[in-house]
Each structure stands twice: as C-alpha cells, then as structure tokens.
Amino acid sequence: MSNATTAATIRPEEAAHFGKLAAEWWDPKGSSAMLHKLNPVRLAFLREAIDSHFAADPKGLRPLANRRALDVGCGAGLLAEPLARMGAAVTAVDAAEENIAAAKAHADGSGLTIDYRHGELAALGLAGFDLVTSMEVIEHVADKAAFIAGLVATVAEDGLLVLSTPNRTTASRLLLVGAAESVGMVPKGTHHWEDFITPLELSDLLAEAGFAMGNPRGISWSPLKGLHQSDDLSLNYIVTAKKHDGVNV
Fold first, then answer.
1. Domain at 22, CATH number
2. Which of 14, 1, 28 is CA-nearest to residue 73?
C-alpha cells in the first residue's frame, strides 16, 4: 500500500467544526441551510450520471437497486438517505463522531438501513462500491492526493465516482468565503479559500490515481434561480470520474 493511501486526511479541527453543527444538520433553516439548498442540485446531477453510467431507466424510482453506494464525508446523512431511497445498499463515512450519531438517529427515524462509519477512510478497509460520492469534502482534508487515492481504492472496477467542491477563484473568495460567512449563510470558519481546488488540479490528482475526470458542471447562484447547474465553474462544480480506460468519460 502506498504512502498516499495511508497518509492521514482528517483534520481534527475540521472534524470538530462540523461535529458542533451535527444537531442542526437536518434543520433546513439551521446552520446547514445552504447544504439543503445545494442538495437538490447535486441530486439532479447525480441521478443523470447514474442513469447514464449504469444504463438505468430515467423514470425508475430505484436506479441503484442491487448496487452498493458509499458516501464519504457524509455529515448527518443528507445525501446518504436519498441514495438509500434510490435502492442502494449504502455505507457512509464521516470524520466527526457527532455527525455519525446524528445520521444514525435520523436514518432510524426514517426507517432506512444505512451502514454509518466513523474514521479515516483508508483505515476502514472499504472496497467494491458501484457508486462513490464525496460532496464538498476534498477542500477540508489534510492531504488531497491521499484522499483521492483513498476514494479511488473504494470504487469497483466499473464503478462511478462523483465529487463536488468549490473552485479556487476570485469569485469564490468574495462570495463563498467573504459574503456567505459574513451574512450567516454559512457558519464562520467553514471555508478556507486557499484549500479550494481547481478543476484542472482535481483532474490531475484523479489522473495520478488512475481515474479520468468527466466534464465538470458548475453550480451557480442567481436571485431568480437560486442554486442551479450551469456552465459557470467559478463558484462550485460537480464532476464524475471513472477508471481510466484510454477513453474520455
């Protein structure tokens, strides 16, 4: 096993920051309100990617039936629960014990069976997942190359990886860090602009791990549309990746 897959990726201060928000995670008007607004946009992209990659029926309610899904950096389960409702056998991992406790409680109350785990991804021995997601997580880790290597190691041979993250641009510094945190849309200390990653940097990290990145879609905001998919990558973007086979994804 390479050093990349064994290096620590969890930043204790980041885990503590998000752990303090656990109790409010499922409150759409609480400290995670922005995630609640972001989730439908991510899910729309994800559903299209699932249907395309697995040749699923776009009208079907359970496109992940008989498939295994892993959500890394799951928080209190905001994405893991929809994946379970899509039919997947879901495992979800987070760095904060408080988040895992909140996630388990909410899943139990919703009648969903999700295998929640706490700890360093590479140490959990997870592998063979048809779908692996990690949304708004890579900007918080201590070692991005090790994190990507850990993610890639969990994906099945013909599986799909989906990531979303803020872009490191002037616009994201002004809006995602400056404006959003100053007006309380995002809890102070959530984002550190210098840790944001550009699409090119992410593509290079994935390539080093043997994965090819698809064309990223931007997640933008406007007064009329709110958060929505767009061609503008300047704030945030979401992207698929799969094992490199010499053909663009």
1. 3.40.50.150
2. 14
Per-residue pLDDT tens over the stretch 127-177: 999 999 999 999 989 899 999 999 999 999 999 999 999 999 988 878 776
What tokens does 134 get? 């990690």
Q: Which two tokens stand for residue 159?
A: 């599986």
Q: What is the pLDDT of residues 102-116, one digit of tens each?
A: 999 999 999 999 999
- 160's enclosing H/E stretch is strand 155-166
DSSP label of 139: G
User: Pick from 119, 89, 94, 137: which is nearest to 238 by CA?
Assistant: 137
**CA gap 216, 21 in Å, rounded:** 29
Contact 38, 226 (CB under 8 A): no
Is residue 47 a part of any domain in this protein?
yes
Whether the CA torsion 221, 223, 224, 226 is positive or negative: it is positive
Structural domain that includes position 94: 3-243
Q: Where are the alpha helices (DSSP H) in the chain?
A: 3-6, 12-19, 33-54, 80-85, 97-110, 144-154, 170-172, 180-182, 199-208
Residue 248 covered by a domain: no
- 8 A C-beta contact, residue 114 and residue 80: yes
